[in-house]
Each structure stands twice: as structure tokens, then as C-alpha cells.
């Protein structure tokens, strides 16, 4: 076998399979982490207790029972602090690359891509509740004291609120308080939790291990296959020549050189949120279907200039004018992605398709520069964009910069990161 060092020996050979949407299109696979709990002392879950999730905000909470008949439980504490369970509350984990769960059954290894990672820690919300219950008593006592005092003249303050600028509105909408308000408005969804040895859990594992016994033609190199299977840092998205000219960055030049060294079909990395929902069937795409797909992309781009593959699949199924392209909704991820890029209407960058050009000569150069920077960086700052624009001789205007960042990115703590889907 190639790549084996002298002295190494093959212990076992296993067939590797990629889980191909056997759990359903709307199913998400999440990794639950417990960073404050060592592996040798896991939480004792009671799977009959409440488990809830907010799908959009990606928040989860789980009730874990407490043992009240131990010496470590303070039965003399205030009644509001005597709990029969603790609540684990989540925070989303930023997945800097793509991960997958590997499970071995017989001589097969099945890789299932992870959609999200969630860290769960004990919530102290019950302390806030106890404090809130005591506030009315304090307020009543304060009001009584005020009533006993003689009335005094109070100064009246009048405030005139200035109209917010576009930048101020953007900062407010990305503020912690605003995002917390949106999260608070989303209702909790109850989940059914099942023990690892339950029948429901066994059916999930069985679904993951269902494989298609068919030969799949290999048209990619080993490195390109690994990038398509599980995208990572080695993935090298295609960069159009127009973007290369606009970007002076070293990484953009390296991408162009890498393309010349490896002339092969596009192997742009696939984001972890994309997952093929149909058996991997390498069927040729007809000329009529390719043209119909291009027309469908044009129709979709009239509403959204950025979208992921899941959204395009859904649009293909529902768009009544999709015609010959409608059947492409069930094609494998890599084949559909290459067909969409082949239309020449969009670029592919970190799991999303971006409209190649808006037709605005004063806006597109800076926009293309920002896209090239996003291809090589997970996060951007304003200084990164302005510096690259100055080096490339691309006009940098505050209005155009703000427009491009709102179109392409989401703000996280003063940093900009590529959007994952049309919004």
C-alpha cells in the first residue's frame, strides 16, 4: 500500500463510508460537551426529565436530577435554594473546521458530519429567581419610606434623541442586548431524550450504518477526495481570475498557483452544514438541465445574493419554473456544487455560493476583494479590508464597505465572519 513507512505493518483494513443523510433532511447531529465535568464523572442523566432546545438560537437546556439523600446536600438552606435538579444551559461552540463522528461496525467505518457543537454548563438562573422574588418586598419598603417623607420638587429632564446613523443601527442590531432579545422571543421546543441503550438509539445507529453496496467511480485525487469528504484547512476553493486581480494578498496568489499545479475538476470544500441527502449516484447532467439550473440560479439571486446548497435544493424542489433542473435537487453534494459553479453566475466560498457580480462597477471591485479575503480568513476586521484595498488600488468607501459586509458577513464581537446561509 502507498504511504506506508518501512517497518509499519497493516493491522486491519476497514471500508470507510460517509453517512449520506440517512437520518433525514431536517435532522441535525450535535456534539454535546460538558467542559466542567471530567470524563470519569459524567452527569447522571434521567431521560424522563425535560430537554428543550431553541433551534434558531442554538440553545439547549437539560434538567439533571440531584441526590438529596447525601451528606453533600444542604437541607437547611433557604427553601428557594433547595433544588431537586440542576439545569444545564448551553452556549454554542465556534467550529473552526469540520468534524465528524466515526463509528465502527464489523469491517466498516461510518463517518457522520457534525452540524453543531454545544457546551453545557450548570445554570444559576435559580439565584436570579430568588433575588427577583425578594425585590417586591424591598420595593414596597422603599415606597413606604418615600411616602413618609414630605413632598419635594423634582427636576424634570428632557432628552432629545438624535436619529441613528446606518452604522449605529448596525451596531445596535449586532449588540449583545439585541441578540439576547431575539433569543428570548424564540420559544423552547421540547425534545424526547432516549438512553444510549434504548430502542430509539439503536434505530439511529442502524440508520447510520445503512450503506449502499455499489461501486462509485473515483474521479478525484486522494487529497481532493479527502477535502470533499470532510472539508478542512487543506481545501482550496476556486478563485475567479477577476478576484485574483483585485486581491493583492499572498493567499490569493497561492491559490492561483495551486490551481495551475493541480489541473483537476473543482474540489471546493463543502461546509459542515451541507450534507448530501441522496445516494451517491454519479449521473451525467444533461445540457438542458444545466441551462435550466443556470436560469434557476438567476431567479434565486434576484432575492438572495448568497445561499448554501441546502437552500438551493429546496428552491429547486419548489420553483415551478425549474423544469429539467428540478431533478438535480437529489444529486450528490459534490456533483450539484460543481454544476452550480459551472453556471458561471456564482462563486463558491466556505460552503456558500455568492453571486459573482452585482453589475455595479463602483461596488464590485471592493466586494470581490472582500470575498477573496474571506476565502483565506475566518474573521475580518475593517483594517484588514482597508489595508488590502489600499495595496490593490481598489477604492475604499465607507458606504460601499458597509454595504458589502452586511451582504456577505455576520458580525461577532467586532469581527466579521462569512454568512452560512441566505437570511
Largest sheet: 6 strands, mixed
Order of helices and strands: EEEEEEEEHHHEHHHHHEHHEEHHHEE
| Secondary structure category | alpha+beta
3D shape: globular
Report the count of strand segments: 14
The largest beta-sheet arranges its strands as 2-8-5-4-3-9
| Tally of alpha and pi helices | 13
Number of domains: 2
User: Kindly, what is the distance between the CA atoms of the first and last residues, rounded to a whole number of angstroms?
Assistant: 47 Å
Strand content: 15-25%
Q: Which stretches are poorly predicted, pLDDT < 50 over at least 5 residues? A: 233-281
Look at the structure and give the mean pLDDT: 75
Radius of gyration: 27 Å
The helix content, as a percent range, equals 25-40%
Biased composition (Low complexity): 244-256
Region (Disordered): 131-151, 233-284
Protein name: DNA-directed RNA polymerase III subunit RPC5
Organism: Coccomyxa subellipsoidea
Structure, explained:
The chain has helices spanning about 125-150, 165-175, 175-185, 200-210, 220-230, 240-245, 250-260, 285-300, 310-320, 335-340, 365-375, 380-390, 400-410; strands at about 15-20, 30-35, 50-55, 60-65, 85-90, 100-105, 110-115, 115-120, 190, 305-310, 345-350, 350-355, 410, 415-420. With about 425 residues, the protein is of the alpha+beta class. It has 2 domains: about 10-70 and about 80-130 and about 175-210, no CATH class; about 220-420, no CATH class. The protein is globular and about 85 Å long. Mean pLDDT is about 75; it is low at about 235-280. It holds the Pfam family RPC5. This is DNA-directed RNA polymerase III subunit RPC5. It comes from Coccomyxa subellipsoidea.
Amino acid at each position: 500500500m502507498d504511504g506506508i513507512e518501512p517497518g509499519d505493518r497493516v493491522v486491519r483494513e476497514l471500508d470507510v463510508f460517509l453517512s449520506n443523510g440517512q437520518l433525514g433532511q431536517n435532522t441535525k447531529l450535535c456534539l454535546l460537551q460538558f467542559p466542567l465535568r471530567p470524563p470519569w464523572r459524567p452527569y447522571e442523566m434521567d431521560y424522563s426529565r425535560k430537554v428543550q432546545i431553541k433551534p434558531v438560537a442554538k440553545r439547549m437546556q437539560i434538567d439533571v436530577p440531584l441526590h438529596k439523600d447525601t451528606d453533600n446536600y444542604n437541607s437547611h438552606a433557604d427553601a428557594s435554594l433547595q433544588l431537586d435538579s440542576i439545569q444545564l444551559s448551553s452556549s454554542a461552540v465556534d467550529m473552526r473546521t469540520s468534524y465528524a463522528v466515526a463509528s465502527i461496525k464489523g469491517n466498516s467505518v461510518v463517518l457522520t458530519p457534525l452540524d453543531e457543537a454545544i457546551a453545557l454548563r450548570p445554570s444559576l438562573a435559580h439565584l436570579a429567581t430568588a433575588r427577583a422574588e425578594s425585590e417586591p418586598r424591598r420595593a414596597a419598603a422603599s415606597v413606604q419610606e418615600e411616602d413618609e417623607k414630605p413632598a419635594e420638587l423634582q427636576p424634570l429632564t428632557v432628552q432629545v434623541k438624535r436619529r441613528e446613523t446606518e452604522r449605529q443601527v448596525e451596531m445596535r442590531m449586532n449588540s449583545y442586548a439585541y441578540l439576547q432579545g431575539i433569543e428570548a422571543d424564540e420559544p423552547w421546543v421540547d425534545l424526547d431524550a432516549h438512553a444510549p441503550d434504548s430502542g430509539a438509539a439503536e434505530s439511529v445507529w442502524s440508520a447510520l450504518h445503512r450503506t449502499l453496496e455499489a461501486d462509485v467511480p473515483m474521479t478525484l485525487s486522494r487529497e481532493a477526495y479527502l477535502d470533499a469528504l470532510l472539508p478542512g484547512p487543506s481545501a482550496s476553493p476556486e478563485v475567479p481570475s477577476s478576484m485574483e486581480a483585485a486581491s493583492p494578498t499572498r493567499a490569493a496568489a497561492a491559490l492561483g498557483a495551486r490551481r495551475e499545479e493541480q489541473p483537476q475538476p473543482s474540489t471546493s470544500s463543502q461546509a459542515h452544514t451541507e450534507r448530501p441527502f441522496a445516494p451517491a449516484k454519479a449521473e451525467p447532467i444533461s445540457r438542458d438541465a444545466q441551462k435550466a439550473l443556470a436560469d434557476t440560479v438567476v431567479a434565486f439571486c434576484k432575492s438572495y445574493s448568497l445561499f448554501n446548497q441546502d437552500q438551493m435544493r429546496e428552491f429547486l424542489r419548489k420553483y415551478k419554473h425549474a423544469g429539467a433542473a428540478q431533478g438535480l435537487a437529489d444529486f450528490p453534494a459534490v456533483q450539484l456544487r460543481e454544476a452550480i459553479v459551472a453556471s458561471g453566475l456564482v462563486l463558491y466560498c466556505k460552503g456558500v455560493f455568492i453571486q459573482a457580480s452585482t453589475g455595479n462597477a463602483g461596488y464590485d471591485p471592493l466586494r470581490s476583494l472582500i470575498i477573496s479575503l474571506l476565502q483565506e480568513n475566518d474573521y475580518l476586521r475593517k483594517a484588514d479590508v482597508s489595508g488590502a484595498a489600499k495595496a490593490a488600488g481598489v477604492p475604499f468607501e465607507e458606504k460601499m464597505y458597509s454595504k458589502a459586509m452586511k451582504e456577505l458577513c455576520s458580525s461577532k464581537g467586532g469581527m466579521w465572519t462569512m454568512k452560512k446561509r441566505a437570511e
